[in-house]
Design brief:
The protein contains 2 helices and 9 strands, in the order H-E-E-E-E-E-E-E-H-E-E. By secondary structure, the protein is an alpha+beta fold. Helix 1 (5-25) packs antiparallel against helix 2 (105-114).
Length: 157
């Protein structure tokens, strides 16, 4: 049985999303007592704001945070209901946001897991599949102590 490259990419992206949800679900009280920062910002695709789901994953510590960008591309991150996350380098995954009412980050992650393409529902924004996996998207940011504001820039190429 042969699978298309696109199918394998979707499976790979789904694996990373499942891993991120599992790690986030195991967090509860992380026991982390070091410096933290908050993250907000904007996300664009070819310089146009997009509604999207974002997952920030610290590959060293396995810590994840997620957020939902609205139609103007504005987002903020949360993890287990908290806005402060540990400082460090994070890899970023992005999937299309669902049409309809805005979802909280945890609901968006669950919807993304249940879909076949890794999105949280139907969307007009054609976010390339390569951005779905934090480990393979090529997007990363350093979260520093205090308030952090990032511009997540994606292209269709």
């Amino acid at each position: 049985m042969r699978f298309s490259i696109e199918y394998l990419r979707i499976v790979k992206a789904s694996f990373f999303v499942v891993s991120a949800i599992f790690l986030a679900g195991c967090g509860g009280d992380t026991g982390y007592s070091g410096p933290t920062g908050t993250v907000s910002g904007t996300i664009t695709l070819d310089d146009q704001p997009v509604a999207a789901n974002l997952t920030f994953m610290n590959s060293i510590d396995g810590f994840t945070a997620s957020g939902v960008a609205d139609g103007s591309g504005k987002f903020s991150l949360q993890s287990n209901g908290e806005t402060a996350i540990p400082v460090g380098k994070y890899q970023v995954g992005v999937t299309a946001a669902a049409d309809g009412p805005e979802m909280d980050p945890e609901a968006a992650m669950k919807a993304s897991m249940e879909s076949e393409d890794g999105s949280a529902g139907g969307s007009d924004s054609a976010i390339p599949t390569k951005y779905a996996s934090p480990a393979g998207s090529g997007l990363s940011f350093e979260v520093k102590e205090g308030d952090n504001s990032f511009e997540v820039k994606m292209t269709k190429e």
